[in-house]
Predict the 3D structure of the following.
Amino acid sequence: MERSRVAVAGASGLIGSALVRSLTADGHEVVRLVRRAPLAPGEVRWDPERGQVDAAGLAGCDAVVNLAGAGIGDRRWSTAYKDRIRRSRVLGTTALAGALARLEPRPRVFVCGSATGFYGETGERAVDESAPPGEGFLPALCVEWEAAAAPARQAGVRTVFTRTGLVVARGGGAWGRLFPLFRAGLGGRLGDGRQYWSFIALHDEVAAIRHLIDRDDLSGPFNLTAPHPLTNREITAAMGRVLHRPALLAVPAPVLRAVLGELAGEVLGSARVVPARLLESGFRFAFPDIEGAIRAAV
């Protein structure tokens, strides 16, 4: 795309920091939304909990990308932490959508983070963007999260939802925890290993977001996952091969439930999600297979 001004909320996170690096390397101007007083040029203050955004700082932005939110797997799911997860996403999106609706001129596009958790448990059934939401905490969260963007969409801002899978990267997320375990020879399947994991290389995640920013004809939900989800057993075997470590250990389901509580249901659950709309739009994955994604992260 031509040189643009892009605002990013969640710019210090795994995906956000990689997106900022990519945009900056290509000469785009990046505005970072921060929760403290701005300390450097290109920083704009916001307080998602209070619904406050320095809208003046977003003036002239061609795109706004919202990737902010408390980590899903950062800690055990207490009632308080589940509320923090929900509020960090829903309130932040509500604040940004309202600010964008009031801007004049408005940005071309609002890219809102979402997750494959929208679909809940799918078992062996493959689902694309036409599937309805599942049941449980994460599906309900994703529905509310996406609905919070309504003010921007109703004001005529093209709005895109990135339903992201498990990002293969060393620097954070689920894979950021897996790499040290496998390097230490402690990696292996979780539960029976038959649950599907929908993954995506960090490189492809960033490339897909930029593709969605650039294409003025694309809106609505897009699954950001590699084309062929694999089972946990297949993925852990691939980790062992790439890292030259045995993947013989297994963590029984009861142990995961004892350690992780309700969060274990997401680790043991199966989400076979495919990126139908992304492929239809002409996007091409650099790392469509798991071994390539792991090697790219290494």
Q: What stands out?
A: The chain has a mean pLDDT of 91.
